[in-house]
Amino acid sequence: MFFFRVTVLLVFCSASFLPHKTFASEPIVIRAAVAKEFKDGLHSRYLKYFADQLGMEIDIVAMPLARRIVEVQKGNLDLIVGLQYSKERAEQLIYILPAYEKLSFRYFSLKENVESINSDGDLRGEIIGVIRGASYFPAFEQDIELQKYPFSNLKTNIDMLVNGRIDLFLHYEESTVPLLKAMGVNHLIKKINYQPKHSHEHYLAISKNSPLAAKTEQLKAIVERGINQQDFIQLRLEHYQQDRH
Questions:
Q1: Are 184 and 158 in contact (CB under 8 A)?
Q2: Ordered structural domains, the chain, with CATH
């Protein structure tokens, strides 16, 4: 009888500790990183959004993209945003499908000049505003004949165009159109006739070595709901509206 009571007691104690063991496997704080120059930028907003949707805290540090990817693969970081899809990366990371945003690059100029550029050749000799440190499409980045003038943000590109300091600028249509309207210059600046046929799909990815891997389906649901509710578009709009002050 004594042996039976001891056995029951041990089983009861073991069962009592099981929930604590499961809870301890989850990260108390999500670990993530963004580029140094974008510590308070849009990617930070997206990361905080996902943490809020999971009901968790998040710690965001600064590091270059290449190192971020490596640290997520190792499990030293839990997740990463703004990532484009590749089969090679998909072997090391868990991509959360679908892409949370799809962005299209567009050239913008003053309204009276939209018909003056109709080919790549017409871009030669034009001063093109870009954002310092931003990634564009290969054909644009590798063309050394183009005169690219870097500014710190989208608002500055718009101001420089209005003031005649540049001839046009290149940026995502999804960010530019709302900001032009918010700044009250959408009647002055328009998309030019000639446009690149290039867009980016940005994904959330999580480490296979992170406890968040167990929340893959939950994160997929969060992304799908965010797309349907236009949460990511709203976050992008709020960011660029705030950036103009």
A1: no
A2: 2-102+200-243 (3.40.190.10), 103-199 (3.40.190.10)
The pLDDT tens digits of the residues spanning 16-65 come to 333 333 334 566 799 999 988 778 888 999 999 999 999 999 999 999 99
Contacts of 162 (CB under 8 A, 6+ apart): 110, 185, 188, 189
One-letter-per-residue 3-state SS of 100-134 = EEEEEEEEEEEHHHCCCCCCCHHHCCCEEEEECCC
In three-state secondary structure terms, 184 is: coil
Which pTM value belongs to this model?
A: 0.71
CA 234-239-243 angle, 5° bins: 150
CA 235 from centroid of its chain's CA atoms: 11
Q: What angle do CA 159, 196, 171 make, to 5 degrees?
A: 25
